[in-house]
Amino acid sequence: MTKVLKFGGSSVADATAISRVLDIVEAEASSGKVILVCSAISGCTDALLSGAAESLERIRSRHLRIIGRLFTGEQREAAQKDIESLFAEMSAAPEAEKVTFGEIFSTRIIARKLSCEGFRTVWTDSRECVVKGDIPETYSRIRRAVSGDADIFVAPGFIASNPDGSVTTLGRGGSDYSAALYAAAVGADSVDIWTDVPGIMTANPKKAPLAKTVPLMSYSAALRMADGGAKVLYPPTVAPAREAGIGIRILNTFDPAAGGTLVSGEDCVPGWVGLADSEDGVITIVGGGEEDPADYVERAAETLRRSGIQPLSSEPSGCDLVIRVSPGILKEAVKVLHREFFEAAPVRNIRLFIAGAGAVASALLETVRKSAGLVAERTGKRLIVCGIASSKLSLVDKGGLPPEEAISALEESGDSLPFVEKVLQEEGEGAFFVDCTDSHTIYKDYERLLEKGFGVVSSNRRSFAVPFVSYAAIKAASLRSGSPLRYETTVGAALPVLESISRSTNSSDEIISIEAVVSCTLNRILSEYRAEESFSSLVKKAWEDGLTERDPRIDLGGRDALRKLLILAREAGLALEEQDVAIEPVTGGSLEGLDIEGVFAALEEREEYFAGLYHDASSRGLKLRFTATLERGAEPAIRLKAVDSRHPAYHLRGTENAIIIRSAFHPYPLVISGAGEGPGEAASSLLNDILK
Ligand code: ASP
Ligand code: MG
After folding, report:
1. Does domain 497-675 have CATH number 3.30.360.10?
2. 293-344: per-residue pLDDT in tens?
3. Residue 173 Cβ contacting ligand 1 at under 6 Å
4. CATH label, 348-490, candidates 3.40.980.10, 3.40.50.1240, 3.40.50.720, 3.30.565.10
5. Are 110 and 154 in contact (CB under 8 A)?
6. Quick one: fold of 272-342?
7. Most buried residue, 270, 360, 382, 472, by most Cβ within 10 Å?
8. What pLDDT is attached to residue 242?
């Protein structure tokens, strides 16, 4: 019974690694004859090829260090002498032959060590037995060379001779092939390729961290993995083993107990075997047969698209699936495809029905497109846009719309049927109705959606600033049905405001006051206003930038702040109604009955009033902030407040918001501040609510 064991360069890189090799070889030698084939120590072949004096010197001293660690006394001296004379021989050798010495250095040291350990060891010169291109001659020479009476034959991999007797190599990585030739020649039980990876894996673990070792693989699948770019096994190795019916085991020197991969047999293993990739962006998903890869072409392409990757092509090739992507996104593509084809964890589909096709909806679609891969990886959830509607058109597509095409699909094939009715025809479980509109009637549909099992996620604050009974009814529907209702976006966009309030309320902490500087429009205008530029021009600019509501009076008159205050108060458990709040608008008088130009003109006439407010505050070192306050024992109010530099809202810039919450449990207020506006912030907040 003969075994062939082959160890690669990193398995013999230093004395510690070599000791591991010795342990493995000695264990195997106890049950039969061993042919040990080794590579040069790692980096050696490259150094010999470069020929640079420095690299050669480094290689020489690494070998001497290995000897110093492995041997003592006379043996050390003898080994040193041997290596020094081999180095001299190498220096004198013709340029083309220098590269063949790496395997001679390593195997000579290992053979000496094994004989020191008491094994009958024979160093076998592969230059004499492996004849490149002549298999029958190679086999008969190998048989002769290892026929002797020994426990272990130690042979250099990689090196061979040409039929004319000149020395050559079997190509980079060729030691695997040497091992297969030795194994086939003697009819070994198996050839064990010991390396520094756990076997052939379902993907390169540097690209797909959840890649697993494939325990069993046919010769043909192993070749296709190698062709595809999985560089574990040197491809020519397969032919001799396959012809002789010898299994190739790939094992990890650094984890000898792990099973590794057995490459053997012609039988196809049903299902997908593994995924190989090459630097130029070609990904091969190797199939074991049975499944028709043509059926999966679209699945692969679709998987990538969902993660925002546009494949260049996706097509079957024999048992395999070949997908091309641009090389820059190869790593991401491998990860995504590996997850789809090889990672068992089922991904849960979350279907989205998006009401609204304006800035927030567009930003949400873009966020879904961009973050799909990450979301799936972090949460195991896959977001699928199954419907979208504007105020005029609606579209539902069970199969899912690519996020980047959803709006154009709506324009092309939407119809005027009511969106909610269409959505209600669908399965509610695992689906969210996402309200990105500013409709003041849509809240009436929430209850039915919730009852049918749809989650409702909303950025539409009007839905929650409705009369308290309606608000309470929506909340009750969510509780009753168990369907989530989330609207964190309605106040302070992505800032975790409502969550902070409900946390306090739910933990029976009592909220003493909430001070909210939440009007982005007024925050920006007030933080820019210096009474040099006119107040009305700043309002106009905010309006032109789309920062104000369509009617800027909603902001100036405090309605927007009022809606936010109602939501905040209700979250804190107060049944606040609109009429309970005293509002002092920032208009300096009534703006009723005016058209938009009239509004700007009226503001223009009041410039002196605004300048007066500003100068009065700034002369006292104060800043004006439009503040909504809710305080125990006081009337809820929305008004301009002059704050000093100790106030958290003093330093707000641009459209920043600040919410200051004082509660009974905490001596200091909780201050939440940051960007409170913008479609991007709204979209990320909606996504958070969807994924919660
Ligand atoms: N030492 C050679 C190389 O680095 C052969 C081998 O390691 O398989 O390519
Ligand atoms: Mg190798």
Report:
1. yes
2. 888 898 899 899 988 899 999 999 999 999 999 999 999 999 999 988 998 6
3. yes
4. 3.40.50.720
5. yes
6. VC0802-like (3.30.2130)
7. 360
8. 96
Q: Write down the pLDDT at residue 506.
A: 76
- pLDDT tens digit sequence for 10-25: 999 999 999 999 999 9
Tell me, in angstroms, the distance from the centre of ligand 2 to residue 10's CA: 9
Contacts for 651-655: CB closer than 8 Å, 24+ residues apart: 652/517, 652/523, 652/527, 652/625, 653/527, 654/523, 654/524, 654/527, 654/528, 655/520, 655/521, 655/523, 655/524, 655/547
Identity of residue 61: S
Report H helices in 437-534: 443-451, 468-481, 497-506, 520-528
Closest CA to 8 of 196, 249, 237: 196
Q: Which residues surround ligand 2, an ion (CB under 5 A)?
A: 8, 173
* Assessment of whether the complete model's pTM goes beyond 0.85: no
171 C-beta closer than 6 A to ligand 1: no
Contact 465, 566 (CB under 8 A): yes
Indicate if ligand 1 lies below 6 Å from the C-beta of 199.
Answer: no
Q: pLDDT, tens digit, for every residue of 549-597?
A: 888 999 999 999 999 999 999 998 889 999 999 999 998 888 889 999 9
Amino acid letter, residue 17? A
DSSP class of residue 40 equals: P
Q: Is the pLDDT of residue 623 over 60?
A: yes
